[in-house]
Amino acid sequence: MGKKRSSSKIFSEHEIKQLESNPNVLHVTDKSITYAPAFKLAAVKAYISGQTPMEIFRNAGFNVDVIGHDKPHQCLKRWRNTYSALGENGLLEEQRGKGSTGRPTGERLSMEEKLKRAEARIKLLEAENDFLKKLDALETQKMQRKH
To answer: Terminal CA-to-CA distance of the chain, rounded, Å?
Structure first.
């Protein structure tokens, strides 16, 4: 999930169109494929019943020369881990960001922290204003020299 791809495969426009035409694909960028949740679940079940990752992907209409020969094995390993940890729902629901606290929202900041941020923003805006005033003065000077 947070791992870097071992192959630095970049998909061409033609390959992206080919992959997007597969009903087992939700979305494709030049670097990644988002698989349909139902396909992930079906793939794990097919693996449990004895099919190899390569067979599963080929039977699902994937060209392994396009996606990469290591991709079926990598995906099945990741999906099996998700399946054993979270069950079917783990594959059917989007997991990215789940349980993440993310950035603190306004309610969680202390008044002191809010004040510090507001003061920093005021300083930034004042610096922007000063810069714009200087720029305006320079442009005015330049125009006066031309006349």
So the answer is: 64
CA distance 86 to 12: 34
16, 4, 2, 13: which is closest to 67 by C-alpha? 16
Q: CA-CA-CA-CA torsion for 92, 54, 47, 2, nearest 10 degrees?
A: -50
Partners of 35 in the β-ladder? 25
Query: Closest by alpha carbon to 32, among 1, 73, 54, 76?
Result: 1
Compare 4 and 121 and report the one with higher pLDDT.
121
Percent of the chain with pLDDT over 70: 86
Quote the DSSP letter at residue 25. E
d(CA 147, CA 123): 37
